Amino acid sequence: MIYLDSAATTLQKPRAVAKQMARAVGRLSSPGRGGHAAAMRAADAAFSCRMLAADMFGVREPENVVFTSNATHGLNIAIKSLVKSGMRVLVSGYEHNAVMRPLKAIGADIVVASSELFEPEMAVFAFERKLRDADVVICNHVSNVFGYILPVQRIARLCDERGIPFILDASQSAGVIDIDLAQLCARFIAMPGHKGLYGPQGTGLLLCAETPVGIMQGGTGSNSLSRDMPDFLPDALEAGTHNMPGIIGLMQGMEFVHKRGAERIMEHERELIRVASDGLTMLDRVRVYRSEHLFSQGGVVSFTVRDASCEQVGEELSRRGVAVRAGLHCAPDAHRTAGTIDTGTIRVSVSAFNTKTEICRFLDILRDIVAKI
Question: What is the layout of strands, in order, in the sheet containing 136-140?
Answer without folding.
Answer: 65-68, 204-208, 188-192, 166-169, 136-140, 88-92, 109-113
